Automatic annotation (TrEMBL), chain A:
Signal peptide: none annotated. Keywords: Cell membrane, Membrane, Transmembrane, Transmembrane helix, Transport. This is ABC transporter permease. Belongs to the binding-protein-dependent transport system permease family. CysTW subfamily. InterPro entries: Bact_Polyamine_Transport (IPR051789), MetI-like (IPR000515), MetI-like_sf (IPR035906). Pfam families: BPD_transp_1. It is a multi-pass membrane protein. One of its GO terms (cellular component) is plasma membrane.
From TrEMBL, chain B:
It comes from Drouetiella hepatica Uher 2000/2452. It is a peripheral membrane protein. This is ABC transporter ATP-binding protein. PROSITE patterns: ABC_TRANSPORTER_1, ABC_TRANSPORTER_2. Residues 8-238 form the ABC transporter domain.
Length: 263, 337
Protein backbone atom coordinates (compact mmCIF):
# COMPACT_ATOMS: atom_id res chain seq x y z
CA UNK A 1 0.00 0.00 0.00
CA UNK A 2 1.39 3.42 -0.91
CA UNK A 3 1.73 5.48 2.22
CA UNK A 4 1.55 8.94 0.70
CA UNK A 5 -1.79 10.29 -0.42
CA UNK A 6 -2.11 11.38 -4.04
CA UNK A 7 -1.42 15.01 -4.98
CA UNK A 8 -4.40 17.36 -5.18
CA UNK A 9 -4.15 17.77 -8.96
CA UNK A 10 -4.54 14.01 -9.44
CA UNK A 11 -7.53 13.93 -7.12
CA UNK A 12 -9.19 16.70 -9.12
CA UNK A 13 -8.44 14.93 -12.39
CA UNK A 14 -9.94 11.67 -11.09
CA UNK A 15 -12.96 13.51 -9.73
CA UNK A 16 -13.44 15.24 -13.09
CA UNK A 17 -13.16 11.97 -14.96
CA UNK A 18 -15.71 10.24 -12.76
CA UNK A 19 -18.04 13.23 -12.99
CA UNK A 20 -17.83 13.14 -16.77
CA UNK A 21 -18.71 9.44 -16.73
CA UNK A 22 -21.52 9.57 -14.22
CA UNK A 23 -23.11 13.01 -14.65
CA UNK A 24 -25.30 11.82 -17.56
CA UNK A 25 -26.72 9.08 -15.34
CA UNK A 26 -27.77 11.60 -12.73
CA UNK A 27 -29.46 13.63 -15.44
CA UNK A 28 -31.45 10.58 -16.55
CA UNK A 29 -32.41 9.83 -12.96
CA UNK A 30 -33.34 13.43 -12.31
CA UNK A 31 -35.67 13.76 -15.30
CA UNK A 32 -37.53 10.63 -14.30
CA UNK A 33 -38.98 12.88 -11.58
CA UNK A 34 -39.59 16.08 -13.55
CA UNK A 35 -43.05 17.61 -13.84
CA UNK A 36 -42.57 18.54 -17.51
CA UNK A 37 -43.82 16.01 -20.04
CA UNK A 38 -42.13 16.96 -23.31
CA UNK A 39 -39.13 19.26 -22.97
CA UNK A 40 -36.28 18.82 -20.54
CA UNK A 41 -35.30 22.14 -19.01
CA UNK A 42 -32.67 22.54 -16.36
CA UNK A 43 -33.29 22.77 -13.51
CA UNK A 44 -36.58 20.82 -13.63
CA UNK A 45 -39.50 23.09 -12.71
CA UNK A 46 -40.75 20.59 -10.14
CA UNK A 47 -40.42 17.00 -8.95
CA UNK A 48 -43.08 14.29 -9.05
CA UNK A 49 -43.49 10.51 -8.81
CA UNK A 50 -46.33 10.61 -11.32
CA UNK A 51 -44.28 9.08 -14.16
CA UNK A 52 -43.70 5.92 -12.21
CA UNK A 53 -47.43 5.32 -11.98
CA UNK A 54 -47.86 6.22 -15.66
CA UNK A 55 -45.11 3.77 -16.54
CA UNK A 56 -46.81 1.06 -14.48
CA UNK A 57 -49.90 1.39 -16.65
CA UNK A 58 -48.11 1.32 -20.00
CA UNK A 59 -48.64 -2.20 -21.38
CA UNK A 60 -46.09 -1.73 -24.18
CA UNK A 61 -43.36 -0.91 -21.66
CA UNK A 62 -44.08 -4.04 -19.62
CA UNK A 63 -44.22 -6.24 -22.68
CA UNK A 64 -40.84 -4.90 -23.81
CA UNK A 65 -39.32 -5.37 -20.36
CA UNK A 66 -40.65 -8.94 -20.08
CA UNK A 67 -39.38 -9.80 -23.53
CA UNK A 68 -35.95 -8.40 -22.71
CA UNK A 69 -35.78 -10.44 -19.51
CA UNK A 70 -36.88 -13.60 -21.31
CA UNK A 71 -34.39 -13.15 -24.15
CA UNK A 72 -31.56 -12.40 -21.73
CA UNK A 73 -32.39 -15.43 -19.59
CA UNK A 74 -32.57 -17.89 -22.46
CA UNK A 75 -29.51 -16.46 -24.25
CA UNK A 76 -27.52 -16.60 -21.01
CA UNK A 77 -28.60 -20.16 -20.37
CA UNK A 78 -27.52 -21.20 -23.84
CA UNK A 79 -24.25 -19.34 -23.46
CA UNK A 80 -23.50 -21.01 -20.12
CA UNK A 81 -23.84 -24.49 -21.56
CA UNK A 82 -22.15 -23.92 -24.90
CA UNK A 83 -19.48 -21.56 -23.63
CA UNK A 84 -18.46 -23.98 -20.88
CA UNK A 85 -18.34 -26.97 -23.20
CA UNK A 86 -16.29 -25.03 -25.74
CA UNK A 87 -13.91 -23.79 -23.06
CA UNK A 88 -13.33 -27.28 -21.67
CA UNK A 89 -12.76 -28.68 -25.15
CA UNK A 90 -10.25 -25.99 -26.04
CA UNK A 91 -8.48 -26.23 -22.69
CA UNK A 92 -8.25 -29.96 -22.34
CA UNK A 93 -6.77 -31.41 -25.47
CA UNK A 94 -4.65 -29.90 -28.18
CA UNK A 95 -6.40 -30.85 -31.43
CA UNK A 96 -6.06 -29.80 -35.04
CA UNK A 97 -7.50 -26.30 -35.50
CA UNK A 98 -7.73 -25.54 -31.79
CA UNK A 99 -6.27 -22.04 -32.11
CA UNK A 100 -8.57 -21.32 -35.04
CA UNK A 101 -11.64 -22.39 -33.09
CA UNK A 102 -10.58 -20.37 -30.10
CA UNK A 103 -10.21 -17.34 -32.38
CA UNK A 104 -13.53 -17.91 -34.13
CA UNK A 105 -15.27 -18.12 -30.77
CA UNK A 106 -13.85 -14.77 -29.70
CA UNK A 107 -14.53 -13.02 -33.01
CA UNK A 108 -18.22 -12.11 -32.50
CA UNK A 109 -17.38 -9.80 -29.63
CA UNK A 110 -14.74 -8.02 -31.67
CA UNK A 111 -16.91 -7.70 -34.78
CA UNK A 112 -19.08 -4.60 -34.90
CA UNK A 113 -22.66 -5.46 -33.89
CA UNK A 114 -23.88 -4.10 -37.17
CA UNK A 115 -21.87 -6.69 -39.09
CA UNK A 116 -23.11 -9.53 -36.89
CA UNK A 117 -26.61 -8.13 -37.24
CA UNK A 118 -26.60 -7.89 -41.03
CA UNK A 119 -24.94 -11.27 -41.34
CA UNK A 120 -27.53 -12.93 -39.12
CA UNK A 121 -30.40 -11.19 -40.87
CA UNK A 122 -29.31 -12.31 -44.34
CA UNK A 123 -28.58 -15.82 -43.11
CA UNK A 124 -31.97 -16.09 -41.41
CA UNK A 125 -33.70 -14.70 -44.50
CA UNK A 126 -31.83 -17.16 -46.67
CA UNK A 127 -32.97 -20.16 -44.65
CA UNK A 128 -36.52 -18.85 -44.59
CA UNK A 129 -36.84 -19.09 -40.81
CA UNK A 130 -39.36 -16.47 -39.60
CA UNK A 131 -38.01 -13.74 -37.33
CA UNK A 132 -39.14 -14.43 -33.81
CA UNK A 133 -38.18 -14.57 -30.17
CA UNK A 134 -35.77 -17.38 -31.03
CA UNK A 135 -33.92 -15.48 -33.74
CA UNK A 136 -33.27 -12.73 -31.21
CA UNK A 137 -32.04 -15.31 -28.70
CA UNK A 138 -29.64 -16.79 -31.26
CA UNK A 139 -28.38 -13.33 -32.16
CA UNK A 140 -27.67 -12.54 -28.53
CA UNK A 141 -26.12 -15.91 -27.85
CA UNK A 142 -23.37 -15.17 -30.39
CA UNK A 143 -21.77 -12.65 -28.07
CA UNK A 144 -22.99 -14.11 -24.76
CA UNK A 145 -21.12 -17.35 -25.47
CA UNK A 146 -17.88 -15.38 -25.82
CA UNK A 147 -18.25 -13.83 -22.40
CA UNK A 148 -18.86 -17.16 -20.70
CA UNK A 149 -16.17 -18.90 -22.75
CA UNK A 150 -13.59 -16.28 -21.84
CA UNK A 151 -14.35 -16.45 -18.13
CA UNK A 152 -14.31 -20.22 -18.05
CA UNK A 153 -11.11 -20.56 -20.08
CA UNK A 154 -9.37 -18.09 -17.78
CA UNK A 155 -10.49 -20.02 -14.71
CA UNK A 156 -9.49 -23.35 -16.20
CA UNK A 157 -6.04 -21.97 -16.94
CA UNK A 158 -5.69 -20.97 -13.30
CA UNK A 159 -6.89 -24.34 -12.02
CA UNK A 160 -3.86 -26.54 -11.59
CA UNK A 161 -3.94 -29.53 -13.93
CA UNK A 162 -2.60 -31.56 -11.03
CA UNK A 163 -5.93 -31.14 -9.23
CA UNK A 164 -7.68 -33.02 -12.00
CA UNK A 165 -4.94 -35.65 -11.96
CA UNK A 166 -5.17 -35.87 -8.18
CA UNK A 167 -8.89 -36.52 -8.43
CA UNK A 168 -8.42 -39.31 -10.96
CA UNK A 169 -5.55 -40.66 -8.88
CA UNK A 170 -7.87 -40.92 -5.88
CA UNK A 171 -10.31 -43.00 -7.86
CA UNK A 172 -12.66 -40.53 -9.56
CA UNK A 173 -13.63 -41.25 -13.16
CA UNK A 174 -13.79 -38.29 -15.57
CA UNK A 175 -17.46 -37.61 -14.83
CA UNK A 176 -16.94 -37.61 -11.06
CA UNK A 177 -13.89 -35.40 -11.50
CA UNK A 178 -15.98 -32.92 -13.45
CA UNK A 179 -18.71 -32.93 -10.84
CA UNK A 180 -16.60 -32.73 -7.68
CA UNK A 181 -13.52 -30.81 -8.82
CA UNK A 182 -13.95 -28.97 -12.12
CA UNK A 183 -17.47 -27.65 -11.64
CA UNK A 184 -16.97 -26.23 -8.12
CA UNK A 185 -13.82 -24.55 -9.39
CA UNK A 186 -15.78 -23.02 -12.25
CA UNK A 187 -18.80 -21.99 -10.20
CA UNK A 188 -17.89 -18.36 -9.62
CA UNK A 189 -16.52 -17.99 -13.16
CA UNK A 190 -19.84 -19.26 -14.49
CA UNK A 191 -21.76 -16.90 -12.26
CA UNK A 192 -19.65 -13.92 -13.27
CA UNK A 193 -19.72 -14.86 -16.97
CA UNK A 194 -23.44 -15.53 -16.85
CA UNK A 195 -24.25 -12.21 -15.23
CA UNK A 196 -22.14 -10.30 -17.69
CA UNK A 197 -23.80 -12.15 -20.56
CA UNK A 198 -27.21 -11.34 -19.10
CA UNK A 199 -26.38 -7.65 -18.83
CA UNK A 200 -24.98 -7.56 -22.37
CA UNK A 201 -28.07 -9.22 -23.80
CA UNK A 202 -30.44 -7.08 -21.78
CA UNK A 203 -29.36 -3.75 -23.29
CA UNK A 204 -28.47 -4.96 -26.79
CA UNK A 205 -29.90 -2.82 -29.60
CA UNK A 206 -28.11 -3.38 -32.88
CA UNK A 207 -28.18 -7.16 -33.25
CA UNK A 208 -31.73 -7.14 -31.86
CA UNK A 209 -32.87 -4.67 -34.50
CA UNK A 210 -31.67 -7.01 -37.21
CA UNK A 211 -32.90 -10.28 -35.75
CA UNK A 212 -36.30 -9.28 -34.30
CA UNK A 213 -39.59 -9.50 -36.12
CA UNK A 214 -42.41 -7.45 -34.62
CA UNK A 215 -41.10 -7.78 -31.10
CA UNK A 216 -39.41 -4.91 -29.39
CA UNK A 217 -37.11 -5.40 -26.46
CA UNK A 218 -36.78 -2.73 -23.81
CA UNK A 219 -33.82 -0.84 -25.37
CA UNK A 220 -35.62 -0.75 -28.71
CA UNK A 221 -38.81 0.43 -27.06
CA UNK A 222 -36.84 3.24 -25.39
CA UNK A 223 -35.28 4.29 -28.70
CA UNK A 224 -38.70 4.39 -30.33
CA UNK A 225 -40.05 6.51 -27.48
CA UNK A 226 -37.38 9.16 -27.88
CA UNK A 227 -38.83 10.27 -31.19
CA UNK A 228 -42.24 10.84 -29.62
CA UNK A 229 -42.58 13.90 -27.42
CA UNK A 230 -45.54 12.51 -25.46
CA UNK A 231 -44.89 11.46 -21.85
CA UNK A 232 -41.16 11.72 -22.23
CA UNK A 233 -40.20 11.07 -18.61
CA UNK A 234 -41.69 7.57 -18.90
CA UNK A 235 -38.61 6.77 -20.99
CA UNK A 236 -36.49 7.97 -18.12
CA UNK A 237 -38.36 5.74 -15.75
CA UNK A 238 -37.68 2.83 -18.09
CA UNK A 239 -34.03 3.85 -18.20
CA UNK A 240 -33.94 3.71 -14.42
CA UNK A 241 -35.21 0.11 -14.61
CA UNK A 242 -32.53 -0.73 -17.14
CA UNK A 243 -29.81 0.80 -14.99
CA UNK A 244 -30.95 -1.13 -11.95
CA UNK A 245 -31.41 -4.43 -13.77
CA UNK A 246 -28.03 -4.31 -15.52
CA UNK A 247 -26.07 -2.69 -12.73
CA UNK A 248 -26.93 -5.15 -9.97
CA UNK A 249 -25.68 -8.30 -11.71
CA UNK A 250 -22.51 -6.57 -12.88
CA UNK A 251 -21.79 -5.34 -9.39
CA UNK A 252 -22.46 -8.80 -8.00
CA UNK A 253 -20.28 -10.45 -10.63
CA UNK A 254 -17.48 -8.05 -9.81
CA UNK A 255 -17.76 -8.79 -6.11
CA UNK A 256 -17.74 -12.53 -6.70
CA UNK A 257 -14.64 -12.52 -8.86
CA UNK A 258 -12.92 -10.36 -6.26
CA UNK A 259 -13.77 -12.73 -3.42
CA UNK A 260 -12.19 -15.44 -5.48
CA UNK A 261 -8.94 -13.52 -6.00
CA UNK A 262 -8.51 -12.82 -2.32
CA UNK A 263 -8.72 -16.44 -1.16
CA UNK B 1 7.17 -69.61 1.25
CA UNK B 2 6.05 -68.15 -2.04
CA UNK B 3 8.07 -65.39 -3.54
CA UNK B 4 6.52 -61.97 -3.13
CA UNK B 5 5.47 -60.35 -6.36
CA UNK B 6 7.28 -57.09 -7.09
CA UNK B 7 5.17 -54.02 -6.29
CA UNK B 8 6.16 -52.39 -9.57
CA UNK B 9 7.88 -53.94 -12.53
CA UNK B 10 9.06 -52.13 -15.67
CA UNK B 11 9.85 -54.33 -18.65
CA UNK B 12 11.50 -52.55 -21.58
CA UNK B 13 9.40 -49.44 -21.11
CA UNK B 14 9.86 -46.58 -23.55
CA UNK B 15 8.06 -43.25 -23.55
CA UNK B 16 8.81 -40.97 -26.45
CA UNK B 17 7.84 -37.29 -26.56
CA UNK B 18 8.28 -36.05 -30.11
CA UNK B 19 12.06 -35.97 -30.60
CA UNK B 20 12.94 -36.88 -27.02
CA UNK B 21 13.00 -40.26 -25.34
CA UNK B 22 11.98 -39.36 -21.81
CA UNK B 23 12.13 -43.00 -20.76
CA UNK B 24 14.38 -45.18 -22.85
CA UNK B 25 13.89 -48.96 -22.73
CA UNK B 26 13.81 -49.16 -18.94
CA UNK B 27 13.56 -52.34 -16.95
CA UNK B 28 13.59 -52.45 -13.17
CA UNK B 29 11.61 -53.79 -10.25
CA UNK B 30 10.54 -52.30 -6.94
CA UNK B 31 9.86 -54.76 -4.13
CA UNK B 32 6.87 -54.61 -1.83
CA UNK B 33 7.34 -52.44 1.23
CA UNK B 34 10.44 -50.83 -0.18
CA UNK B 35 11.33 -47.14 0.03
CA UNK B 36 12.63 -46.71 -3.50
CA UNK B 37 13.97 -43.41 -4.84
CA UNK B 38 14.25 -42.24 -8.41
CA UNK B 39 17.14 -39.80 -8.34
CA UNK B 40 18.29 -37.68 -11.22
CA UNK B 41 18.61 -34.17 -12.64
CA UNK B 42 15.56 -32.48 -14.14
CA UNK B 43 14.63 -33.94 -17.50
CA UNK B 44 16.23 -37.29 -16.73
CA UNK B 45 12.93 -39.16 -16.96
CA UNK B 46 12.26 -39.84 -13.29
CA UNK B 47 9.00 -37.88 -13.17
CA UNK B 48 7.85 -39.47 -16.43
CA UNK B 49 8.42 -42.86 -14.80
CA UNK B 50 6.28 -41.81 -11.87
CA UNK B 51 3.50 -40.60 -14.18
CA UNK B 52 3.63 -43.91 -16.03
CA UNK B 53 3.16 -45.80 -12.76
CA UNK B 54 0.31 -43.49 -11.70
CA UNK B 55 -1.38 -43.84 -15.08
CA UNK B 56 -1.31 -40.16 -16.09
CA UNK B 57 0.73 -41.19 -19.08
CA UNK B 58 1.04 -44.36 -21.16
CA UNK B 59 4.25 -45.90 -22.49
CA UNK B 60 4.83 -46.18 -26.23
CA UNK B 61 6.10 -49.69 -25.71
CA UNK B 62 6.94 -52.07 -22.92
CA UNK B 63 5.04 -53.42 -20.00
CA UNK B 64 4.33 -51.99 -16.55
CA UNK B 65 3.17 -54.49 -13.95
CA UNK B 66 1.69 -53.67 -10.59
CA UNK B 67 1.82 -56.73 -8.30
CA UNK B 68 2.23 -58.84 -11.40
CA UNK B 69 -0.82 -57.35 -13.15
CA UNK B 70 -0.31 -55.64 -16.48
CA UNK B 71 -1.26 -51.99 -15.92
CA UNK B 72 0.31 -49.98 -18.75
CA UNK B 73 -3.04 -49.01 -20.26
CA UNK B 74 -5.19 -48.73 -17.11
CA UNK B 75 -6.52 -45.24 -16.30
CA UNK B 76 -5.36 -43.71 -12.99
CA UNK B 77 -8.71 -44.37 -11.28
CA UNK B 78 -8.42 -48.09 -11.89
CA UNK B 79 -5.00 -48.46 -10.26
CA UNK B 80 -4.44 -48.99 -6.59
CA UNK B 81 -1.67 -46.41 -6.62
CA UNK B 82 -1.82 -42.94 -5.07
CA UNK B 83 0.30 -39.87 -5.56
CA UNK B 84 1.59 -37.00 -3.46
CA UNK B 85 2.00 -34.18 -5.95
CA UNK B 86 4.82 -31.70 -6.07
CA UNK B 87 2.37 -28.79 -5.71
CA UNK B 88 0.24 -30.95 -3.33
CA UNK B 89 -2.80 -30.44 -5.62
CA UNK B 90 -5.17 -30.04 -2.67
CA UNK B 91 -8.72 -29.18 -3.65
CA UNK B 92 -9.10 -25.53 -2.59
CA UNK B 93 -12.89 -25.62 -2.33
CA UNK B 94 -12.87 -28.50 0.15
CA UNK B 95 -11.90 -28.63 3.80
CA UNK B 96 -8.93 -30.65 4.98
CA UNK B 97 -11.32 -33.40 6.08
CA UNK B 98 -13.07 -33.48 2.70
CA UNK B 99 -9.74 -33.54 0.90
CA UNK B 100 -8.49 -36.49 2.92
CA UNK B 101 -11.82 -38.30 2.71
CA UNK B 102 -12.26 -37.72 -1.03
CA UNK B 103 -11.38 -41.23 -2.14
CA UNK B 104 -13.59 -42.76 0.57
CA UNK B 105 -16.45 -40.51 -0.52
CA UNK B 106 -16.03 -41.79 -4.09
CA UNK B 107 -16.08 -45.36 -2.81
CA UNK B 108 -19.32 -44.56 -0.96
CA UNK B 109 -17.83 -45.48 2.41
CA UNK B 110 -20.46 -44.82 5.11
CA UNK B 111 -20.11 -41.37 6.60
CA UNK B 112 -19.26 -42.50 10.13
CA UNK B 113 -16.51 -44.83 9.03
CA UNK B 114 -15.18 -42.19 6.67
CA UNK B 115 -15.08 -39.64 9.47
CA UNK B 116 -13.25 -42.08 11.72
CA UNK B 117 -10.63 -42.96 9.14
CA UNK B 118 -10.04 -39.34 8.18
CA UNK B 119 -9.45 -38.56 11.86
CA UNK B 120 -7.02 -41.45 12.20
CA UNK B 121 -5.17 -40.41 9.07
CA UNK B 122 -4.87 -36.81 10.26
CA UNK B 123 -3.55 -38.10 13.59
CA UNK B 124 -0.91 -40.10 11.73
CA UNK B 125 0.36 -36.98 9.98
CA UNK B 126 0.01 -34.92 13.18
CA UNK B 127 -2.82 -32.74 11.95
CA UNK B 128 -5.44 -33.78 14.52
CA UNK B 129 -8.18 -31.16 14.89
CA UNK B 130 -7.53 -29.52 11.51
CA UNK B 131 -10.48 -31.22 9.76
CA UNK B 132 -12.50 -28.07 9.23
CA UNK B 133 -9.69 -25.88 7.90
CA UNK B 134 -9.41 -24.91 4.27
CA UNK B 135 -6.10 -25.64 2.47
CA UNK B 136 -5.55 -21.89 2.10
CA UNK B 137 -5.39 -21.59 5.89
CA UNK B 138 -2.51 -24.05 6.20
CA UNK B 139 1.24 -23.60 6.06
CA UNK B 140 3.34 -25.31 3.39
CA UNK B 141 4.36 -28.12 5.73
CA UNK B 142 0.76 -28.72 6.81
CA UNK B 143 -0.46 -28.86 3.21
CA UNK B 144 2.23 -31.41 2.56
CA UNK B 145 0.87 -33.54 5.39
CA UNK B 146 -2.70 -33.24 4.12
CA UNK B 147 -1.55 -34.39 0.69
CA UNK B 148 0.19 -37.35 2.30
CA UNK B 149 -2.85 -38.26 4.40
CA UNK B 150 -5.14 -38.01 1.37
CA UNK B 151 -2.92 -40.32 -0.64
CA UNK B 152 -2.46 -42.86 2.18
CA UNK B 153 -6.06 -43.19 3.38
CA UNK B 154 -6.86 -45.55 0.53
CA UNK B 155 -4.07 -47.90 1.64
CA UNK B 156 -2.62 -48.05 -1.87
CA UNK B 157 -0.25 -50.79 -3.04
CA UNK B 158 2.21 -48.11 -3.95
CA UNK B 159 2.55 -44.49 -2.86
CA UNK B 160 4.20 -42.20 -5.38
CA UNK B 161 5.87 -39.03 -4.15
CA UNK B 162 6.87 -36.42 -6.72
CA UNK B 163 9.54 -34.22 -5.12
CA UNK B 164 7.16 -33.66 -2.22
CA UNK B 165 9.64 -31.79 -0.07
CA UNK B 166 10.96 -29.47 -2.77
CA UNK B 167 8.92 -26.46 -1.71
CA UNK B 168 9.81 -26.64 1.98
CA UNK B 169 12.67 -24.83 3.67
CA UNK B 170 15.70 -26.78 4.85
CA UNK B 171 14.76 -27.34 8.51
CA UNK B 172 11.21 -28.36 7.70
CA UNK B 173 12.44 -30.58 4.91
CA UNK B 174 14.77 -32.47 7.24
CA UNK B 175 11.97 -32.89 9.75
CA UNK B 176 9.57 -34.14 7.07
CA UNK B 177 12.21 -36.59 5.82
CA UNK B 178 12.34 -38.20 9.24
CA UNK B 179 8.57 -38.30 9.47
CA UNK B 180 8.15 -39.76 5.99
CA UNK B 181 10.53 -42.53 6.86
CA UNK B 182 8.71 -43.19 10.15
CA UNK B 183 5.30 -43.18 8.46
CA UNK B 184 6.52 -45.55 5.77
CA UNK B 185 7.75 -47.97 8.45
CA UNK B 186 4.36 -47.82 10.14
CA UNK B 187 2.07 -48.23 7.14
CA UNK B 188 4.38 -50.73 5.37
CA UNK B 189 3.38 -49.40 1.94
CA UNK B 190 5.80 -49.29 -0.97
CA UNK B 191 7.03 -45.71 -1.42
CA UNK B 192 8.43 -44.53 -4.73
CA UNK B 193 10.07 -41.21 -4.19
CA UNK B 194 11.20 -38.87 -6.96
CA UNK B 195 13.90 -36.37 -6.06
CA UNK B 196 16.81 -34.48 -7.55
CA UNK B 197 18.35 -34.09 -4.10
CA UNK B 198 20.99 -36.80 -3.76
CA UNK B 199 21.33 -36.30 -0.02
CA UNK B 200 17.59 -36.83 0.43
CA UNK B 201 17.69 -39.96 -1.69
CA UNK B 202 20.64 -41.36 0.27
CA UNK B 203 19.01 -40.59 3.62
CA UNK B 204 15.56 -42.01 2.92
CA UNK B 205 15.87 -44.88 0.50
CA UNK B 206 16.16 -48.60 0.94
CA UNK B 207 17.31 -48.62 -2.66
CA UNK B 208 17.66 -45.93 -5.28
CA UNK B 209 17.92 -45.68 -9.03
CA UNK B 210 20.06 -42.94 -10.55
CA UNK B 211 18.49 -41.58 -13.75
CA UNK B 212 20.23 -39.88 -16.62
CA UNK B 213 18.70 -39.10 -20.02
CA UNK B 214 15.88 -41.58 -19.74
CA UNK B 215 18.10 -44.44 -18.62
CA UNK B 216 19.07 -45.81 -15.24
CA UNK B 217 22.79 -45.50 -14.60
CA UNK B 218 22.81 -47.52 -11.41
CA UNK B 219 20.43 -49.19 -8.97
CA UNK B 220 21.50 -50.11 -5.48
CA UNK B 221 21.35 -49.47 -1.77
CA UNK B 222 22.54 -45.95 -0.83
CA UNK B 223 25.93 -47.00 0.52
CA UNK B 224 26.68 -49.03 -2.58
CA UNK B 225 25.71 -46.20 -4.95
CA UNK B 226 27.74 -43.73 -2.95
CA UNK B 227 30.79 -45.89 -2.28
CA UNK B 228 30.94 -47.76 -5.57
CA UNK B 229 29.50 -45.49 -8.28
CA UNK B 230 29.21 -47.47 -11.48
CA UNK B 231 29.59 -44.62 -13.93
CA UNK B 232 31.20 -41.19 -14.11
CA UNK B 233 27.70 -39.68 -14.07
CA UNK B 234 26.76 -41.37 -10.80
CA UNK B 235 30.09 -40.50 -9.22
CA UNK B 236 29.55 -36.89 -10.15
CA UNK B 237 25.83 -36.57 -9.42
CA UNK B 238 25.71 -38.43 -6.12
CA UNK B 239 27.88 -36.45 -3.76
CA UNK B 240 31.18 -34.87 -4.72
CA UNK B 241 33.69 -37.03 -6.42
CA UNK B 242 37.00 -36.94 -8.24
CA UNK B 243 36.50 -38.50 -11.64
CA UNK B 244 40.00 -39.19 -12.86
CA UNK B 245 41.13 -40.28 -16.31
CA UNK B 246 43.89 -39.70 -18.85
CA UNK B 247 47.35 -38.63 -17.72
CA UNK B 248 46.41 -38.19 -14.08
CA UNK B 249 44.96 -41.71 -13.96
CA UNK B 250 48.15 -42.96 -15.58
CA UNK B 251 50.21 -41.15 -12.94
CA UNK B 252 48.11 -42.34 -9.96
CA UNK B 253 47.20 -45.95 -10.81
CA UNK B 254 49.41 -46.67 -13.75
CA UNK B 255 46.55 -47.11 -16.22
CA UNK B 256 44.46 -44.58 -18.14
CA UNK B 257 41.17 -46.30 -17.27
CA UNK B 258 38.91 -43.73 -15.60
CA UNK B 259 38.11 -44.14 -11.93
CA UNK B 260 36.43 -42.21 -9.14
CA UNK B 261 37.57 -41.45 -5.63
CA UNK B 262 35.62 -39.55 -2.98
CA UNK B 263 37.35 -36.41 -1.65
CA UNK B 264 36.91 -37.52 1.97
CA UNK B 265 38.77 -40.76 1.29
CA UNK B 266 41.94 -38.85 0.50
CA UNK B 267 44.04 -37.70 3.45
CA UNK B 268 46.24 -34.69 3.26
CA UNK B 269 49.46 -34.74 5.25
CA UNK B 270 52.76 -32.92 5.22
CA UNK B 271 55.56 -34.32 3.13
CA UNK B 272 57.37 -35.91 6.12
CA UNK B 273 54.48 -38.22 7.15
CA UNK B 274 55.35 -41.81 6.27
CA UNK B 275 52.95 -43.54 3.87
CA UNK B 276 51.46 -46.78 5.27
CA UNK B 277 52.78 -49.75 3.36
CA UNK B 278 49.49 -50.73 1.62
CA UNK B 279 48.37 -47.17 0.79
CA UNK B 280 48.87 -45.03 -2.28
CA UNK B 281 50.23 -41.51 -2.25
CA UNK B 282 50.99 -38.51 -4.42
CA UNK B 283 52.48 -35.09 -3.91
CA UNK B 284 50.70 -31.95 -5.00
CA UNK B 285 50.36 -28.23 -4.57
CA UNK B 286 47.36 -26.58 -2.84
CA UNK B 287 45.58 -24.38 -5.36
CA UNK B 288 42.36 -23.42 -3.68
CA UNK B 289 40.98 -23.58 -0.14
CA UNK B 290 37.25 -23.51 0.52
CA UNK B 291 36.28 -23.28 4.20
CA UNK B 292 32.89 -24.99 4.73
CA UNK B 293 32.63 -24.77 8.52
CA UNK B 294 32.40 -28.47 9.33
CA UNK B 295 35.14 -29.27 6.82
CA UNK B 296 37.53 -27.65 4.38
CA UNK B 297 37.65 -28.43 0.69
CA UNK B 298 40.97 -28.22 -1.11
CA UNK B 299 41.86 -28.28 -4.75
CA UNK B 300 45.26 -29.83 -5.11
CA UNK B 301 47.24 -29.62 -8.33
CA UNK B 302 49.10 -32.76 -9.34
CA UNK B 303 50.99 -33.66 -12.42
CA UNK B 304 48.35 -33.97 -15.16
CA UNK B 305 45.34 -32.66 -13.25
CA UNK B 306 43.64 -31.81 -9.98
CA UNK B 307 42.11 -33.68 -7.05
CA UNK B 308 39.50 -32.38 -4.66
CA UNK B 309 40.21 -33.26 -1.05
CA UNK B 310 37.92 -32.75 1.93
CA UNK B 311 39.39 -32.64 5.43
CA UNK B 312 37.31 -32.51 8.62
CA UNK B 313 38.11 -29.40 10.62
CA UNK B 314 39.13 -31.30 13.74
CA UNK B 315 42.10 -29.08 14.45
CA UNK B 316 42.39 -25.38 14.01
CA UNK B 317 45.56 -25.72 11.95
CA UNK B 318 44.31 -25.58 8.37
CA UNK B 319 47.07 -25.60 5.79
CA UNK B 320 46.54 -22.76 3.35
CA UNK B 321 49.15 -23.29 0.70
CA UNK B 322 52.30 -25.14 -0.22
CA UNK B 323 53.19 -28.69 -1.13
CA UNK B 324 51.26 -31.52 0.53
CA UNK B 325 51.17 -35.27 0.44
CA UNK B 326 47.92 -37.08 -0.43
CA UNK B 327 47.33 -40.59 0.91
CA UNK B 328 44.48 -42.99 0.13
CA UNK B 329 43.63 -46.67 0.36
CA UNK B 330 43.59 -48.66 -2.84
CA UNK B 331 40.10 -50.04 -2.08
CA UNK B 332 38.62 -46.55 -2.36
CA UNK B 333 39.41 -46.37 -6.02
CA UNK B 334 36.26 -47.17 -8.02
CA UNK B 335 36.87 -48.10 -11.62
CA UNK B 336 34.14 -46.62 -13.83
CA UNK B 337 32.51 -48.22 -16.81
Amino acid sequence: MPSKSAPLSLKIAVGGGLLFLYFPFTVILLYAFTTEDSAFTFPPPGLTLKWFSVALQRQDLWQALTLSLQVATVATGLALIMGTLAAIAVYRTPFFGREAISFLLLLPIALPGIVTGIALRSAINLTGIPFSFWTVVVGHATFCIVVVYNNVVARLRRTAKSQIEASMDLGADPLQTFRYIVLPNLATALLAGGMLAFALSFDEVIVTTFTAGQQSTLPIWILSQLTRPRQRPVTNVAAVFVIVITFLPILLAHRLSQDREST
Amino acid sequence: MTEKLPAVEFVHVTRQFEAMRAVDDLSFTVDQGEFFSLLGPSGSGKTTCLRLIAGFDQPNSGSIRLLGQEAASLPPYERNVNTVFQDYALFPHMTVGENVGYSLMLKKTPKQERQKRVEEMLELVQLGGMMQRKPSQLSGGQRQRVALARALINEPQVLLLDEPLGALDLKLRQQMQMELKAIQKRVEITFIFVTHDQEEALTLSDRLAVFNRGKIEQIGVPAEVYERPATAFVADFVGVSNVVDGTLAQALIGSDRSFAIRPEKIHMTDLETPVPPDACSAVGQIQEVLYLGISTRYRVALQGGYLTVVEQNTTSAIPRSGKVQLIWQREHICPLS
